[in-house]
Write a structure and sequence with these properties.
heterodimer, A: about 270 residues, alpha+beta, Uridine Diphospho-n-acetylenolpyruvylglucosamine Reductase, domain 2, Uridine Diphospho-n-acetylenolpyruvylglucosamine Reductase, domain 3, Enolase-like, domain 1, 5-stranded antiparallel β-sheet, 11 helices, about 30% helix, globular, B: about 800 residues, Aldehyde Oxidoreductase, domain 4, Aldehyde Oxidoreductase, domain 3, 4 domains, 7-stranded mixed β-sheet, 5-stranded mixed β-sheet, 20 helices
């Protein structure tokens, strides 16, 4: 059972910010799929929960000037089903549709996932690989500056992620091996191609959370084929380890997912 | 296919103890005529489902009583630690906190230990003893320990408060002064000299050590054998993960000095008896209610300390007290299952005939001994489905700093089935035999039945080779080569694993049925079993409907209230359909005898001259007839009760075959095909039995592929404490099963029933493992331990590659 807390459901960004500032130890809540289990296990005890679910500024999916912008409060289910997403970046729609189960996808949000930066979450890999811009209540942050290690981002206390603007690539692919228990990513790779430039982001595998695999990017920028990655490996020592996958297996899986994502562009691939 | 019990009795192959075979005369039931079966054998849709799927189930946490308060437990964070003191003062200062109780308080109030009776006690169970031959020391299971905590999660104090949140807040403030002690969590470690000791009474942690079979004859057979093979296995520890967490609500009525406990379990009668003993009260002063139960699998059969604690607290505080476990508490402190180390050896002659077997089984019972059923059941079935003339088994049970283990679906049998089937496969490979031929050569044959195995278990009936042939036909065995080629073309490795199994269903020997026919034609049956999804309300009604020649809709099954159900063994060990079916048949015969007497008196004709047809007694001389309801009046209701004691075990058996495809790159594994033939004896309701088979297979596959109560040996902490880390089978993990029911009637009971609840699970650990090994054999993999996750496959392939490299280096 959770510790006692107060719950607020503001309807504007400014009201949410105000609530947060005025509270002793507040936390924003979006889908709550990480925060609530943590609170139920008594590992988090915010004095106030400020819901971001009723704020219009955080909603909507739009396409403009080579950019697909998704409101932070959009659920995984709505991203997966959005024509704007499936039409422009089908791998991103596939990614959203592969998160958790039906219930999770109808509660969990893109903003919550990105702001939480769980090392096994899916979205951070798309944010990095699609060179996204993270819009907040205060500013715009480049993807390369946003993720700062496991569960850590560039967001300041009280700052709210409002929308994620993805650069629309020529093509992109996402390949994932799921943890057999939690079905989070044991390792996954998002590979996006922008002209001659290729971006590869790996999630699930590293101890430090999502990262860009620059060696793979260099090779793929010259020769966009799975074969171009032959012999390229990740450093096992940088990988995460638990009962589900050793460092060596994670390094193997990350490389395999990258090859699969190159081979199978335009879609989600579950290994 | 089906045989009359009477026929078998004439063909005894072994000397049988008295009371083994069922005797219709002695049981006073008369012959059971198959032609009367209208409902038995039919796939009647479950009567209980509408209630359960429309939210009208009565699960424990659904009950509330005015004024109820809540219990929260203070649990040990250490696997082994002395309790130097417990200071509740900071907890008691919080608002709404009513009490904090410790083991010292419980002792002062005279509470006793839970009287677990871990040693199975029917006449046919193997005899497990302490190393000195005496009754084993089991470690008293006090509600709260006073000396030390012996496993992570052990409750050492209980807090009662007016809300659940306040109880949990207060529990965090109870200050326990701990002195950490060295711990041991693995049973093979625990029996090493110098290992940490859990109980002073058992210095080497070995509470049971028994020998079975003939050691000298086995040694002699091994010495002269052409082939000998040996293997060591660990059958991993799992937990039940019931959808409904364990829960209880205790209510005390001061005026009558009676307590009522709402608590779903595997049998309310046992809960009542044992909890009354803990509290030191007259059993009549305790009523236990167990209605709908959201999953059991064995975990709920034994009493939990929380049930005793809230009963005690509710009597002290004169307030109702509720406890509902969180999922985290369930993972830590639900009774767990399996955890057996086994070393097995097989001797064969030059033709592949099995000559002898040795086994050394070490069961991890946890911090105290709740049940020896897994070790006992496995011991009796050590030779599996095969005729092995002599065998010798050492069976040990060992204390460790882990949660107690209990009988878990198909207690003990998947463990030994895994061991013998893997050993047979190893023998085939090492000695150059075809694995199917080797099995066929050694299966116990139908004409050997009843068959006494090398450790004394009497297999009642079965057609084992026929099961194997049928399962192979169902699986389309000849197509394997083509399917393997097809998989290879897709980059996948295909493997097939076949396992024969035999299991024993014994269970608590006593069951009672009360049957009453009301004047308006309703039949009420009171029975002491406890379903947790098995559909007793339907299948039991089918039996009584046929016995009384009444419609199945007219029959209502009442269970789960100890004020109504006085006697009953609950549901475990596949006992329910057989025990309930038998005693309901007996009670039905009694009821018909009484009805016949009444009808005779009414008609003025000798009772034996009346015909009983379609639920009515008919007078041959006239057209008059009287139905059972006609013969029941408000003042003289037609009602009977019969208690039956039945010790003879039955041996459900069968064959299962699993096919897997493995991606050698990702190491992802998929079950692509699963077939089984299960001899359940007479099948009362094939719809329900198939459901049991399907669930049983999924549960066995779960253990083989994902489920694991992994414990970090250095810290003693359970690593998989939530569903994030404890993998469960899901609907998309298993294919549509091809299951067939075989019915070789058992001669031990009137309906010829064996059991159908556990046969899906029993061979599944072996079939999955053998299928994986078959798939990986070309790459040099010869062994892999459960759970077979993609990580384990990757490691096995990496080791095999390394070994191959070393072979290539001169």
């Amino acid at each position: 059972m959770m510790y006692a807390f107060s719950y607020h459901a503001p309807i504007s960004l400014s009201e949410a910010r105000k609530r947060f500032e005025e509270s002793e130890d507040a936390a924003y809540i979006s889908g709550g799929h990480t925060l609530l289990p943590t609170m139920k296990n008594r590992l988090a005890a915010p004095s106030d929960l400020v819901s971001l679910g009723q704020i219009e500024e955080l909603q909507g999916i739009a396409v403009a000037e080579g950019c697909l912008t998704i409101g932070a409060a959009e659920t995984h289910a709505s991203v997966a089903a959005s024509d704007a997403v499936t039409g422009r970046i089908p791998a991103l729609a596939g990614l959203a549709g592969s998160i958790g189960d039906v219930q999770v996808r109808h509660r969990g949000t893109i903003g919550g996932s990105v702001a939480n930066n769980d090392p096994a979450a899916d979205y951070p890999s798309a944010v990095l690989a699609l060179d996204a811009r993270l819009h907040t209540s205060e500013r715009v942050i480049e993807a390369s500056d946003f993720f700062q290690g496991v569960y850590t981002t560039a967001l300041e206390p009280g700052e709210i992620l409002t929308k994620v603007g993805f650069r629309i690539p020529d093509t992109a692919g996402y390949a994932k091996m799921r943890n057999p228990a939690s079905r989070y990513a044991l390792a996954a790779a998002f590979v996006a191609r922008f002209g001659d430039s290729v971006r590869v982001a790996i999630t699930g595998a590293s101890e430090d959370g999502v990262f860009r695999w620059t060696e793979a990017e260099e090779r793929l920028s010259k020769d966009f084929s799975a074969g171009a990655l032959a012999g390229l490996t990740l450093n096992e020592a940088d990988m995460n380890e638990d009962i589900h996958a050793s460092r060596g297996y994670r390094a193997h899986l990350a490389a395999l997912c990258t090859r699969k994502a190159v081979e199978l562009q335009g879609r989600l691939t579950l290994l | 296919m089906t045989q009359k019990p009477g026929k078998l009795r004439a063909e005894f192959r072994t000397e049988l103890p008295s009371g083994w075979a069922f005797d219709e005369i002695e049981a006073r039931i008369g012959p059971i005529r198959d032609q009367l079966f209208k409902q038995i054998g039919q796939p009647v849709r479950r009567k209980e489902d509408r209630r359960l799927v429309t939210g009208r189930g009565r699960f424990t946490d659904d009950f509330s009583v005015p004024g109820e308060c809540y219990a929260a437990l203070v649990r040990s964070p250490y696997p082994h630690a002395r309790i130097k003191g417990i200071d509740p003062s900071a907890a008691l200062e919080l608002p709404g906190v009513l009490a904090v109780y410790t083991g010292v308080d419980a002792l002062a109030d005279g509470l006793g230990p839970i009287p677990h009776s871990p040693v199975p006690s029917t006449k046919f169970d193997v005899r497990l003893t302490a190393p000195d031959g005496e009754a084993p020391f089991i470690g008293p299971h006090l509600l709260l320990p006073i000396d030390k905590a012996r496993h992570v999660g052990e409750a050492v104090a209980v807090v009662i408060a007016d809300t659940k949140a306040r109880a949990e807040d207060a529990a965090e403030r109870v200050d326990v002064d701990w002195e950490e002690l060295p711990h041991v969590t693995d049973s093979l470690e625990a029996i090493r000299p110098g290992s940490p000791r859990l109980w002073d009474e058992v210095p080497d942690n070995t509470l049971v050590c028994s020998h079975f079979g003939d050691a000298d004859a086995t040694d002699a057979a091994f010495q002269s054998a052409a082939h000998r093979v040996r293997a060591k296995f660990h059958i991993n520890r799992v937990t039940a993960v019931t959808i409904e967490p364990r829960a209880a609500l205790a209510d005390y009525d001061k005026a009558s000095a009676r307590s009522t406990l709402y608590a779903g379990s595997g049998g309310a009668v046992r809960q009542k008896r044992e909890l009354a003993s803990v509290l030191g009260i007259d059993p009549d002063d305790l009523r236990v209610l167990s209605y709908d139960v959201g999953g059991n699998f064995g975990a709920r059969n034994r009493v939990y300390v929380e049930f005793g604690l809230i009963l005690w607290a509710s009597r002290k505080l004169e307030r109702p007290v509720k406890f509902t476990a969180t999922r985290s508490e369930a993972f830590l402190t639900d009774y767990q299952g399996r955890d057996l180390h086994t070393t097995v050896e097989l001797a064969l002659d030059e033709n592949g005939q099995f000559l002898a077997m040795r086994a050394d089984n070490v069961s991890n019972v946890g911090a105290r001994c709740v049940s020896l059923s897994p070790l006992s059941k496995g011991s009796g079935l050590i030779t599996g489905s095969y005729h092995i003339p002599v065998a010798h088994l050492v069976a040990r049970a060992v204390f460790t700093n882990t949660m107690c283990t209990q009988a878990y679906r198909s207690s003990g049998r998947p463990e030994v089935t895994y061991a013998i089937e893997r050993l047979v496969e190893i023998a085939a490979e090492q000695c150059g035999f075809d694995p199917i031929d080797l099995r066929r050569r050694n299966l116990v044959s139908a004409d050997q039945m009843p068959y006494r195995n090398a450790v004394g278990a009497i297999y009642d009936s079965g057609a084992y080779e026929e099961n194997m042939d049928k399962a192979m036909a169902l699986f389309q065995w000849p197509d394997i080569a083509a399917r393997r080629d097809d998989a290879r073309a897709r980059g996948k490795l295909l493997g097939v694993g076949l396992a024969n199994y035999v299991e024993s269903s014994i269970g608590s020997p006593v069951e009672r049925a009360e049957i009453a026919v009301s004047p308006d034609g309703e039949v009420e049956v009171v029975i002491g079993t406890q379903p947790s999804g098995q559909g007793h309300e339907t299948s039991f009604a089918q039996v009584v409907a046929d016995m009384l020649q009444m419609p199945v809709e007219a029959v209502t099954i009442t269970l789960g209230d100890t004020d109504i159900v006085s006697v009953g063994g609950g549901s475990h060990s596949g006992r329910s359909m057989r025990h309930a079916g038998t005693v309901m048949t007996m009670a039905s015969a009694d009821l018909l005898a009484e009805a016949r007497r009444r009808a005779g008196a009414e008609f003025g004709t000798p009772a034996e001259d009346l015909a009983f047809e379609d639920g009515a007694f008919k007078c041959r001389a006239t057209n008059r007839f009287l139905t059972l309801s006609d013969l029941s009046t408000a003042t003289a209701p037609l009602a009977v009760a019969r208690t039956n004691e039945m010790h003879a075990p039955v041996f459900p058996n069968g064959t299962a075959i699993c096919e897997v495809e493995i991606d050698p790159d990702s190491c992802q594994i998929e079950i692509t095909r699963y077939a089984s033939v299960d001899d359940v004896g007479r099948c009362i309701n094939p719809l329900i039995v198939h459901g049991q088979s399907h669930g049983g297979i999924a549960q066995g596959v779960g253990q083989a592929m994902w489920e694991d109560c992994a414990i970090d040996p250095s810290s003693g902490q359970q690593i998989a404490g939530s569903l994030l880390d404890y993998g469960m089978p899901r609907a998309d993990n298993v294919p549509s099963f091809d299951c067939e029911i075989a019915e070789v009637l058992s001669p031990t009971n009137p309906l010829g029933i064996k059991a159908g609840g556990e046969g899906g699970t029993t061979p599944a650990l072996a079939t999955v493992t053998l299928a994986v090994l078959d798939a990986l054999r070309p790459l040099g993999v010869r062994d892999i331990s459960m759970p077979i996750t993609p990580e384990r496959i990757w490691q096995a392939l990496a080791s095999a590659r390394e070994a191959n490299m070393q072979e290539l280096v001169p």
